[in-house]
Q: What sequence folds into this?
């Protein structure tokens, strides 16, 4: 009888093992694709039942985004708007990103503003050569900055002045992540990690059966390779993450370091002890926009803002009076923290 029980247990174990293998194979294999887009890189991991490589389809979608939102492509929709082309019409992608920009601009009290293009260009971070950045020049450019100076009427962008220009780089990568996720969802893909320029969105589990693990880079000078030196490791599901910081995109002139985040109220690069802002939200476009807004607001204003807007979670890295790294994060952010390094 004992032998029968043992044989029964062995048989049950074999059946379970076979079922596990069958289920695993029916779900499909995990594929990884990567490439370059929007002046940065992208990395995607997903599980496909058919095992199909979607590199071509992803690259085609990314090319469509460029044709709408790239300020470096003269024929793109946004470039033609900046050039005051009378025949240009806003497409669906531009309209979506413009409407979100208007919303975040209003809620953030103007900290997020896509009309900063003339200032971004003047400081050498845009799509034209840097120009003079004396106070007189900055003051003259400020008259072309402000979301109240531009609006959509149907598919027509109406600008208060022809020198007003738009730059959506602070939100476009997050939006691109959302578009890629929308594409995967339509294909019925349930397990994926989509990353574009450090902005990330996940669903399901990785090939080990665990929640996706995402690293936050330490905002230190010389940390130019994503993932090389981490501040923290997160684990989350069906959420989006975006990080903004001034430790990679900057230049020095006359001993002064100028960051790429421009304060639309002053016309000058944002100056504060806030080194990086990581935001978690339902969609990546929203996370991307608010990460930039927090870098403009600075630490204290960002903390007060987060107290009032509980739909956002954030992890802020800043330097104290002694120059040491310190961290502030919302209470809800703790649920995602796997490890702080």
A:
């Amino acid at each position: 009888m004992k032998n029968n029980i043992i044989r029964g247990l062995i048989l049950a174990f074999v059946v379970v093992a076979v079922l596990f293998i069958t289920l695993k194979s029916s779900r499909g294999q995990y594929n990884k694709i990567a490439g370059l887009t929007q002046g940065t890189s992208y990395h995607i991991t997903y599980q496909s039942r058919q095992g199909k490589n979607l590199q071509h389809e992803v690259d085609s979608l990314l090319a469509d985004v460029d044709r709408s939102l790239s300020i470096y492509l003269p024929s793109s929709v946004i470039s033609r708007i900046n050039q005051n082309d009378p025949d240009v019409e806003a497409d669906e992608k531009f309209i979506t990103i413009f409407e979100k920009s208007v919303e975040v601009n209003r809620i953030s009290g103007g900290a997020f503003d896509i009309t900063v293009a003339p200032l971004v260009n003047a400081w050498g971070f845009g799509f034209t050569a840097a120009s003079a950045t004396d106070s007189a020049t900055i003051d003259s450019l400020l008259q072309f900055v402000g979301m109240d100076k531009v609006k959509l009427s149907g598919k027509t962008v109406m600008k208060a002045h022809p020198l007003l220009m738009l730059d959506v780089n602070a939100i476009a990568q997050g939006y691109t992540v959302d578009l890629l996720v929308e594409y995967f969802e339509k294909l019925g893909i349930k397990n994926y990690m989509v990353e574009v320029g450090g902005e990330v969105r996940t669903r399901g589990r990785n090939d080990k059966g665990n929640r996706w693990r995402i690293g936050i880079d330490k905002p230190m000078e010389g940390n130019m390779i994503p993932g090389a030196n981490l501040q923290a490791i997160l684990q989350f599901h069906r959420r989006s993450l975006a990080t903004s910081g001034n430790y990679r995109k900057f230049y020095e002139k006359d001993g002064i370091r100028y960051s790429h985040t421009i304060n639309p109220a002053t016309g000058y690069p944002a100056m504060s002890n806030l080194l990086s802002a990581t935001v978690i939200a339902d969609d990546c476009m929203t996370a991307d926009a608010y990460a930039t807004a927090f870098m403009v607001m600075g630490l204290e204003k960002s903390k007060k803002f987060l107290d009032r807007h509980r739909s956002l979670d954030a992890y802020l890295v800043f330097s104290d009076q002694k120059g040491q790294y310190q961290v502030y994060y919302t209470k809800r952010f703790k649920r995602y923290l796997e490890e702080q390094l």
